[in-house]
Amino acid sequence: MSNIVLIGPMGSGKSTVGAALARRLGRPHVDSDHFFVARYGPIPDYFTTHGEKDFREREHRVVAELLDSPRPSVISLGGGAVMDERTRALLGEQMVIMLDITEEQAALRIGDGTTRPVLGDEPMEAWKRIYAEREGIYRACADMVLPADDESIETRVDTIVARLNPTPSGDDTTP
């Protein structure tokens, strides 16, 4: 079985849902942003020192490494990871789930945006612009899209597990 990869905009809960899903499925969970930070240091500092282009190159390498793990895992990607066409090509061999989010939910979750270097001085305006640019790519990559109305972590995990393991309909057998 392939990896399960969570994608979506900043603040959609990829890290939190990914960890809960991994526990439920008995798989390891890896967050590409956490992996990047462990290897290269804080993302805002990396952005400042090396720029977005270098960050995206290294991010792609991290994602490729994580996807190549011999043990199927739940992998949460940073919001911009899908912008690299090489990464998108690698996702074609995985089970990809997009976690969607409303603008109102994003405002509550991203706060002042200081830990998210691409948001700048007006985090919600930047979030809306970035979401508009990326939404079509997220949806094109996704095998499954969880709508924003599935708000709780457990509800999202329940929905994913149910869709991954559908029960046969019309089964008239009783134990």
Describe it.
Substrate binds at residues 33, 56, 79, 134. Mg(2+) binds at residue 15. Its EC number is 2.7.1.71. The protein is α/β, with parallel strands linked by helices. It has helices at residues 14-25, 32-40, 43-67, 85-91, 103-110, 123-141, 153-164; strands at residues 4-7, 29-31, 74-76, 95-99, 144-146. Strands 2-3-1-4-5 form a 5-stranded parallel beta sheet, with helices on both faces. Helix 2 crosses helix 3 (43-67), helix 3 runs parallel beside helix 4 (85-91) and helix 5 crosses helix 6 (123-141). It is globular and about 50 Å long. The mean pLDDT is 87.
Kindly summarize this structure in a few lines.
By secondary structure, the protein is of the alpha/beta class.
